Amino acid sequence: MKIQLSDHFTYSKLMHYTLPSIVMMVFTSIYGVVDGFFVSNFVGKTPFTAVNFIMPVLMILGAAGFMLGTGGGALIAKTMGEGKREEANRLFSLVVYVGVGCGAVLAMLGLLLIQPIAAALGAQGQMLEDSVTYARIILCAIPAFVLQYEFQCLFATAEKPALGLYVTIAAGVTNMTLDALFVAVFRWGLEGAAAATAVSQCVGGIIPLVYFARPNNSLLRLGKTRFDGNALRKTCTNGSSELMSSISASVVSMLYNFQLLRYAGEDGVAAYGVLMYVSLVFQAVFIGYSVGTAPVIGYHYGAQNHEELRGLRRKSMAVIALFAAAMFAAAMFAAAQLLAKPLSLLFVGYDPELLELTAQAFFIFSFSFLFSGFAIFGSSFFTALNNGLVSAAISFLRTLVFQVAAVLIFPLIWKVDGIWMSIAAAEALAVAVTAAFLWALRKRYQY
User: How far from the centroid of its chain's Cα atoms is residue 48's Cα?
Assistant: First the structure.
């Protein structure tokens, strides 16, 4: 079924168009889980802890691509909705070229600063050494990592969400295959796991670059452009919520690691790593849906199709509610409760105390799955409307303010269990804030 951004979107068409983005995000999360499995079971607990400890820093660097992809995609879709196809291609080229340059700069800075950053965050001894070893290999692929994040958003804008899925599958299969080969067969340890991830990021970033540089049948193609400070400012403003969300999530992860080292030692950090792997898979459904609908919303906003915009908002909230009720409240919530120990066993079964801590964390942490989707979509919705300020406010409150406050206060009352409770409390507060913004701005955008 050929679906265009200009179409009228029924529930069926909306799900058909967004499904590749949903699967793409879920698949990305799953191959991250596989990476963690190999490190934990074939390299050891301390290297596994080190990977989870330093990963938030690396994700902050990759977040630049998410900002450019979501912010640029919103501006490009709006421009196409206004009928300016040539201008849209110029903007697309500018955003991609800036992504390449940004990735190169971040890689150089990261290689210089990663050791003092890891030490400042509290890593010591072998964990510090392992963190730096893993990070330096990944940093060599940061330009491709930035592009991978960027193109995951821009494929939907180019009316090629399925192609984005195929590229993600190729990158994921590469990562899983090389993990098994480098870590389990060749026994290259932490360096092998890092190399597998770096190569997969190159696959996910470079293949789309080649595709869009050549003649293709998508809406977009790389070509000549010129520096446009105003367009770049709008792109960064539009995507600031996604950048804020990624940076805040990483900063909060560092804070969680700090608190867990204090209250539970290295076992707490390892348990948190397992929770984050599973949480990423669950939340990927909402992130994928939001990424898939953003260019559609942006296009109809640019074309001033208010009736279609209202329909997209109503349908999307219904879909999110259905996902939350059916998948999270029933299937996924139940799975988290019933399968907590088996899932924990997959990663940390070699350590009984760590296994017990992780299973208990699952039980409490799973409540957050009931709330997370609404704020994720709400932030993306305002990004698509080119309102970066409101989008950033939702992300900032959800991923930084609420979580920081909760993770600092709750452990004073409930110790380690308070750390797991804090995420669910923050997600619930973020839903209330999202609902308030949607209600307050409904007349302005006529949705």
Answer: 20
